[in-house]
């Protein structure tokens, strides 16, 4: 699976507020690290990288964040604009991430410890790896 957005049921009501409970079945890896990104000025774009091996689950509990995802062939836009949504991103996906509203927060559950060598930060190098089939041998990573 390259990437997938899930919409979770919320528990509660407007008078008391809501709770989201995310079952283990939506978390397909052991979490090695959690990080979050905040205080990002509106319309800032971050990302501009892909990962060799890392799997991530991302959610935006506050605000609105727009993901432009690219598997080297097709491009998709996914908007996290609700605490009910989580986004799985597997290895080999180039992402550009725009902070579409002020005070948006991005929380990330990651399958591995931080490793700069896992990043591909050059788009030409990324496309070359896609064309060489760097990610295509692994069924787990195909859609
Ligand atoms: P990066 O993943 O490039 O974030 P973004 O794509 O949102 O800009 O990380 C930004 C910087 O933070 C980069 O220098 C790597 C560093 N970093 C860590 O030291 N540890 C971490 O767990 C993460 C995610 C990033």
Please, could you describe this protein's structure?
The protein has a 5-stranded antiparallel sheet, with no helix packed on it. A 5-stranded antiparallel sheet has the order 8-7-10-5-12. Strands 2-3 form a two-stranded antiparallel sheet. About 5% of the residues lie in helices and about 45% in strands. The longest helix has 9 residues, at about 125-130. The chain has about 140 residues and is mostly beta strands. Strand 2 (about 10-15) and strand 3 form a beta hairpin. Thymidine-5'-diphosphate binds near residues 35 and 49.
Major sheet details: 5 strands, antiparallel
What structural class should be given to the helix and strand makeup?
Answer: mainly beta
Helix content: under 10%
Mean pLDDT, to the nearest integer, reads 94
Tally of helical runs: 1
How does the overall form come out from the CA principal axes? globular
Instruction: Give the quaternary arrangement of the chains.
Output: single chain
How do the SSEs run, as a string of H and E? Answer: EEEEEEEEEEEEH
Roughly how many Å apart are the termini?
Answer: 4 Å
What fraction strand?
Answer: 35-45%
Ions and ligands: thymidine-5'-diphosphate
Sheet with most strands: strand arrangement: 1-9-6-11-4
Q: How many extended strands? A: 12
Low-confidence stretches at least 5 residues in length (pLDDT < 50)?
none
Radius of gyration: 16 Å
């Amino acid at each position: 699976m390259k990437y997938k957005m899930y919409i979770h049921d919320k528990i509660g009501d407007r008078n008391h507020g809501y709770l989201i409970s995310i079952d283990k079945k939506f978390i397909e890896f052991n979490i090695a690290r959690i990080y979050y990104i905040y205080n990002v000025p509106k319309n800032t774009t971050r990302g501009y990288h892909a990962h060799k091996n890392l799997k991530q689950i991302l959610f935006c509990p506050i605000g609105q964040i727009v993901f432009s995802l690219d598997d080297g062939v097709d491009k998709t836009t996914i908007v996290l604009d609700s605490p009910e949504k989580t986004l799985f991103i597997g290895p080999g996906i180039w992402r550009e991430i725009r902070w579409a509203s002020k005070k948006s927060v991005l929380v990330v559950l990651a399958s591995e410890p931080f490793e700069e060598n896992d990043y591909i930060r050059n788009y030409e190098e990324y496309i070359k790896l896609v064309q060489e089939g760097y990610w295509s041998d692994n069924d787990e990573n195909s859609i």
